[in-house]
Amino acid sequence: MMLIVMPLVVSIVWTTRHLFAPLPLLGWGVIVFLGLIALAYTLILSAQNASTGSTVGKRLLGIRTLRAESLKTGDFGDAYARGFSYFLGVLGFGIAPIIMATRVVKGGENEFWPHKAGNTMVIDVRKGKDPLKHETQFFPLYPEEWDGNSGHAAIGSIYPPVAPQWSPAFTPPKEAQQLSAPRITSTDFFDIRKKNRKKENWKAAGQGVFTLLATFGSITAVAVAATALNPEMPKPRDEHEVLASSLGEKLPIAGYDGQGFPGYKNAPDWIKEVTAESKVFATIDQVFTLNDRELQVLSAADGKLIKSISINDSVEVSAQTYYSGEPGIYWSVGDTAYGWSESLGQHDPFSATIPAGAEPYATGSELLFAGKSDMPDQYKAWRFTEKGFIEIPVPKGYIPAAFKGENLVSYNHAGEVKITSKESNISAYPLRSPKDSLPFAGIVSAGNDRVVALWSPYPDSNAGNTPVTVAFYNSDDGYLLSYIETTLERINTYSNLSWGPDGSTAMYAGYLFDVESGRATTDLLAQQVEPISVIGEGVLGENSLGSVYVTPSEVLSISGTTPLLANSDLAVVRTHANVIEKYSK
Fold first, then answer.
1. 72 within some domain
2. Are 488 and 477 in contact (CB under 8 A)?
3. What whole-number distance in Å separates Cα of residue 487 and Cα of residue 43?
4. How far is CA 356 from the centre of its chain?
């Protein structure tokens, strides 16, 4: 019974936990391996039944399986045929073992259809004698002593007496027919025995082959049925698609002992204390600390002060950006914008009055200032430089999205993209649907030479389970780089696309993307991480461990530390004690 109950319980638990979960199909290697295990198991059981009439289980139950007519052990073919019949009963939801068990309890000797198929009988050796264990018995020499009483007289006469010849009851003895030759010779005897043995051998071989083929066929049928009933693992439609299910695997968690930053040296190269109110930005070359009255620029290499800039009023907006391809910092006080980059050296930061209606947008590595025009369906765009705010023409009906070098990338609500300069249009193209001519659902963002768009079969739907495809394109020509299908619920929950400071990564809809390939690399929600911001090659977030830093390969526990920059060469962090620390590999 346990042979049936235990696998049944395990299968129910497994089915409950993995119901409708896509799993790999059973390959031929797995099927052959299962078949070899089943073959070895059945051969061992059949050999035990053929030699002793019992297996380990039968010994525990106190029963033995013998030939019905001779009460002796059967041959290997009969044992295998009986075992296969029993195996069919096991496949029938354990019906055969249950009925067998009830019949064994009711009576000592039982014949069930598997045993009838093998011409065998089940004997309970706990009751009565074991036919294979013969007891030594003694028989007296003379028949008159067989009744156990050897003290009676010898036989004196036979009753009734033989009738004499003169009696009517006399019957003459029959004369035996004289044989001219023996009825059967020794040669005939051996020929018949050889013929019968050959017949039995062919019969046993046929039973074995039939049982073997039937066993393999049954196992193969079970494996094929399991494969057919099991949901097939989804496959990408093409080389551009990333399956969301392929990102659901849990990443390993790397511990953190509170010293340094995981993966870097334990001792910092330099440290710098800041106030709790300070905002801190880090690039590969500089670290910026900004409070209400002072901006300090530190060297990322050694932590030395490069420039200290006094600020006369409270800073309203501050962000890391690029000026002429060089990393710098932007901040605003009232309607005045300020900027500084390393090329200025000890010179004061440049400044300019922010145009009316202009708002800064983090579109990739460089800030874009955009606003609505007084004309209908018309936008304005500006670039903030050392020369002030320079207006960039925006095509009518298009929305400014990002800068690409000296040019502007814009798009319209139909999914068409234009790249323009101050003088003319450079290129224009419609975005191509990633699959099955999906309707266009909007553009999320543009930057770092990429355009991110949404596609959905139901673009006007508000249902959370509406399928939405996130696609990354090359902004030069609209070439599709990669796409992933998700749900509207994830889009609405994590609707802001965040670009990494160095432009190598981006975060959207709870996924971490590699900007160069456009491919989603990590499902942050599958790691049970609440994302906060993109830092270097990973995402800063929180989960049950506290603060974590998630990369495509692992989850780093960093409680007590907030990374500002992390790449293959260095890491700049800010501790909860408001200390800036720089670590190298």
1. yes
2. no
3. 53
4. 53
CA angle, corner 119, sides to 117 and 121, nearest 5?
A: 110
Most confident region among 66-70, 324-328, 497-501, 579-583 by mean pLDDT: 579-583
Residues 121 and 126: their CA atoms lie apart, in Å, by: 15
Per-residue pLDDT tens for 124-147? 666 666 666 665 555 555 555 555
For residue 244, tell me if it sits in a domain: no
Mean local confidence (pLDDT), 364-380: 88
Per-residue confidence (pLDDT) for residue 482, from 0 to 100: 97
Residue 295 near residue 288, CB atoms below 8 Å:
yes
Which residues lie across from 511 on neighbouring strands? Answer: 508, 523
Is 67 in a helix, a strand, or coil? Answer: strand
List Cβ<8 Å contacts ≥24 apart for 374-379: 379/410
CA Rg value for the chain: 45
- With contact defined as beta carbons under 8 Å apart, do 452 and 445 qualify? yes
Looking at residue 502, its pLDDT comes to 79
DSSP code of 23?
B
Percent of the chain beyond pLDDT 70?
72
68 φ, ψ (degrees, to nearest 5):
-70, -35
Cis ω before 349 (30° cut-off from 0): no
- CA dist 338 and 282 (Å) reads 18
Cβ partners under 8 Å of residue 425, min gap 6: 395, 418, 419
In a domain, 58, yes or no: yes
Q: Which residues of 359-382 are buried (b: 16+ CB within 10 A; e: fewer)?
A: ebbbbbbbbbbbeeeeeeeebbbb
Q: 431 with 414: CB under 8 angstroms? A: no
Residue 217 to residues 77, 96, 114, 312, 361, Cα–Cα distance (Å):
18, 20, 19, 86, 66
Residue with tokens 């046929």: 206
- For the residues 479-484, what does the mean pLDDT come to? 96
Q: Yes or no: say if 342 and 298 are a contact pair by the CB < 8 Å rule.
A: no
pLDDT: is 106 or 445 the higher one? 445
For the whole prediction, is pTM greater than 0.85? no
Q: Please tell me the least confidently modeled range out of 204-213, 239-248, 306-315, 461-470.
A: 204-213
Cβ proximity of 529 and 542 under 8 Å: yes
pLDDT reported for residue 153: 53
Asked whether residue 56 is domain-assigned, the answer is yes
Whether residue 283 contacts residue 327, with contact meaning beta carbons closer than 8 Å, is answered with yes
Helix axes 95-106, 2-17, angle to 10 degrees: 150
Antiparallel, parallel or unpaired: β 366-372 and 570-575: unpaired
Q: Which amino acid is at 105?
A: V
For the segment 332-350, what is each residue's pLDDT rounded down to a tens digit?
A: 888 999 998 888 888 889 9
Quote the tokens at residue 14.
């497994």
Domain range for 63: 28-104+111-124
By CB neighbour count within 10 A (0-12 exposed, 13-18 middle, 19+ buried), where does 35 fall?
middle
User: Based on the structure, what is the number of domains in the chain?
Assistant: 1
pLDDT of residue 203: 73
**Predicted pLDDT at 49:** 75
Question: Phi-psi bin for 119: left (phi > 0), alpha (psi -120 to 50), beta?
Answer: left
